[in-house]
Amino acid sequence: MAHPPLAPGWIDAPHHVASLGCLALESGEVIDDLRISYVVHGSLDNSSRPVIFGLCSIGSTHHRLDFLIGAGRALDPSRFTIVVIDALGNGLSSSPSNSQTQPGERFPRFTIRDMVASQRVLASHLGIGAVAAIVGASMGGMQALQWGVSYPDFARSLVALVPMAKTAPWSQAINHAGRLALTNARELPTAEARWETWVALMSVLARSPSRLAADVAANQDVNKDALAWLAACTRSMAAQKSDPLDWIYQSYAYDAHDVGASTGFGGDTQKALASIRARTLVAVPSLDLYNPVESGIWAAEQIERSELIRLPFPSGHLVASEAEPQAAAQLNDRIGRFLSYDEPAL
Fold first, then answer.
1. Which among 149, 160, 144 is positioned nearest to 263, based on CA atoms?
2. Contact between residue 274 and residue 125 where contact means Cβ atoms under 8 Å apart
3. Is the model's pLDDT at 345 over the cut of 80?
4. CA distances (Å), origin 219, targets 141, 144, 224, 233
5. Distances from the Cα of 179 to the Cαs of 62, 100, 193, 325, in angstroms?
6. Which residues in 56-95 are b (16+ Cβ under 10 Å) and which e?
7. Checking DSSP bridges between strand 306-311 and strand 279-285, what pairing results, if any?
8. What is the DSSP string of 31-61?
């Protein structure tokens, strides 16, 4: 897809697409023409600044972490060069919706480890042998932990917000419901109709009950009516021009994820997490109806050099986003201090 329209708070940074040849996947299939989209905040030509990789969540783009990027924020381009990478299947990097040689359901299914492998290929293409940190939220946090397992010497630090190391049955069930909503609606005539059920489901489960009520009340255009608010959310999603099949493919990767399935760990998730050498910061909310809180807590407990932040805000999974200003401020402060612990140029 084309880049979605800029939304409030998004940063319009230089956008790049790297053509990287074939990518062999874990399944044995191959992406014929790997293309990875990314943005750079700062300059890769400035070797005095450490590089940070940012990773996006399911269905999102490189704008997912914009709430952490900017002057005075945790990922400050005056301190770091930040490369935010679009994950396989998000409609900007190689995806079912944009592949010329493997379009639609001919596109091979991929895993989160395949996402990380594609990012490693991009790093080599850019001449980046190591980074100061890898930062991600939700599926981005899951990728960050996988980076720590697959390439233990690549990053000095990992920041995983609302993550899982192994996808919980609860999250798999939610994704299945989301897939059903999109699959059953794919032939409907308008984008709003195709996304309507999915938006209702995910808008509820990305929030806590109190946060949803607050969001409905805060929107002056819907007169405190939840159904009118959901309709507005659906219009906003439709405007992004996303392809439902892309989200479906990413959800398959999400469901199958387990760092313990990495080579050498024999399915032992705990052993895989214990192998992470990077300093790791994990943040969870008080309640998460998408990625269960206990999954993030357990992951942090298995990593030797880890810190855990429990964010005391009633926003659910949205706590790690610009949608929760107080949490965003706390995360910028805590992540900024965490990254300041060790900041020499690489």
1. 149
2. no
3. no
4. 30, 34, 7, 11
5. 23, 24, 15, 30
6. bbbbbbbbbbbbbbbeebbbbbebbbbbbbbbbbbbbbbb
7. parallel
8. ESS-EEEEEEES-TT-TTS-EEEEE--TT--
Find, among 133, 62, 126, the residue nearest to 93 by Cα.
62
Whether the CB-CB separation of 271 and 253 falls below 8 Å is answered with no
Distance, CA of 256 to CA of 241 (rounded, Å) = 26
Backbone angles phi, psi at 175, to 5 degrees: -60, -40
The amino acid sitting at 136 is G
pLDDT digits (tens, 9 = 90+) for 150-197: 999 999 999 999 999 999 999 999 999 999 999 999 889 999 999 999
Residues of the chain within CATH 3.40.50.1820 domain(s) are 15-166+258-340
pLDDT at 341: 73
The two structure tokens encoding residue 120 = 């490693």
State both tokens at 222: 């819907």
Give the chain's mean pLDDT: 95
C-alpha–C-alpha distance, residues 278 and 297, integer Å: 17
DSSP string, 140-166: HHHHHHHHHHHSTTTEEEEEEES--SB
Predicted TM-score of the model (pTM): 0.96
Please report, to the nearest 10 degrees, the dihedral formed by the alpha carbons of residues 38, 176, 300, 60 taken in order: 20
Find where tokens 């005539």 sit: 189
Residue bearing tokens 């990922």: 75
DSSP 87: P
Q: How far apart are CA 116 and CA 104, in angstroms?
A: 22
Per-residue pLDDT of 90-149, as tens digits, reads 999 999 999 999 999 999 999 999 999 999 999 999 999 999 999 999 999 999 999 999
CATH of the domain spanning 15-166+258-340: 3.40.50.1820
